[in-house]
Amino acid sequence: MATINVSSNGTRYGQNVSVRDFQFVADEPSSIGGDDRGATPMEYVLAGLGACKAITIRMYAERRGWSLDTVDVQINYERSSAKEKPFVQAQLIFSGDLDEAQRARLKEIGDRCPVHRFLSEQLTIETTIDHP
Prior knowledge:
alpha+beta; 3-stranded antiparallel sheet; GMP Synthetase, Chain A, domain 3; 32% helix
């Protein structure tokens, strides 16, 4: 099981995040009262989706010996209202000597990355309170 620690950093909304040996800050933009010192939690989730797709595609192409020079992923997110289901679009940009069948297969593989599957499933999230 992965453990991620999140703690207040003394600003209005800012949070220090620790994952394994990595630290980063999550915050909200100044337009809604944050200090804009880091990406928003949703931006980190979507960045994880894009990175997961790119890594999974790269691994698959390497195992097949395909000529994939680069894979870039652009994630667009839209949610008009809290009642509306969010819409996420992932655009893949490949460079390398790939035919259309290979490109289509890489798209399929990207849609099977662990984060894509995780976000597409119904999740069970249990929240508990720990008293210090």
